[in-house]
Write a structure and sequence with these properties.
With about 190 residues, this protein is an all-alpha fold. Helix content is about 75%, strand content about 0%. It is built from six helices and no strands.
């Protein structure tokens, strides 16, 4: 496991130093939890015929709605986070963001995990980095494309294609092993 920290510049006016260790710990916990979730989905739902993705995410949403609402009430009553209803315009934006940015993206990611592997789907998410850099170059947000940026983009793409090729080879090998075992079983029953 490799941990990477960033050097934070703290605001001299506030006099507070950022708690980098806590932030890195939360990020690590988040990555571990996401990894466990991705592997568990692949293990429990081997194909979409076993449990359709809309049904799975509907169940996840139902469980969250039924179990997490007391946290909102406690946060409001304690004054930690005050709750109030959003305006109609804000509610529309929140709903659209939830549908496109959360529901659709999670369904596509889960589908990718079922079609490939949790590792390949997660590494595929990292392709957003070089694509965002290319977008910045095209929109003239980055005027100097350094060799380090190009090398980093190449490394991300190379890693994705290497994992994809390995995934294809692993699937072929598994299919061949199953065919051999199936063939030996048939030959034994025929003879």
């Amino acid at each position: 496991v490799m941990l990477a920290g960033t050097k934070h510049k703290h605001d001299a006016d506030s006099g507070q130093k950022p708690n980098m260790l806590a932030g890195d710990g939360v990020a690590l916990l988040s990555a571990i939890t996401y990894g466990a979730y991705a592997v568990q989905v692949k293990h429990e739902v081997p194909s979409e015929s076993a449990l359709p993705m809309p049904w799975l995410f509907g169940l996840v949403g139902l469980v969250c709605c039924l179990t997490l609402w007391p946290g909102i009430v406690l946060a409001h009553l304690s004054g930690f986070e005050l709750f109030r209803w959003p305006t109609k315009a804000a509610l529309l934006v929140i709903t659209l963001n939830a549908l496109v940015g959360t529901v659709l993206s999670n369904m596509l990611l889960a589908r990718a995990m079922l079609l490939a592997s949790p590792l390949l789907a997660t590494v595929g998410l990292s392709l957003a980095i070089p694509l965002a850099m290319a977008s910045d170059v095209l929109r003239a947000k980055i005027t100097h494309f350094s060799p380090a940026l190009a090398l980093g983009s190449f490394a991300v793409w190379a890693g994705f294609f290497a994992l994809g090729g390995g995934d294809v080879l692993e699937r072929r090998r598994s299919a061949e092993l199953r065919a051999r075992k199936g063939g030996k079983g048939k030959a034994a029953t025929l003879g």
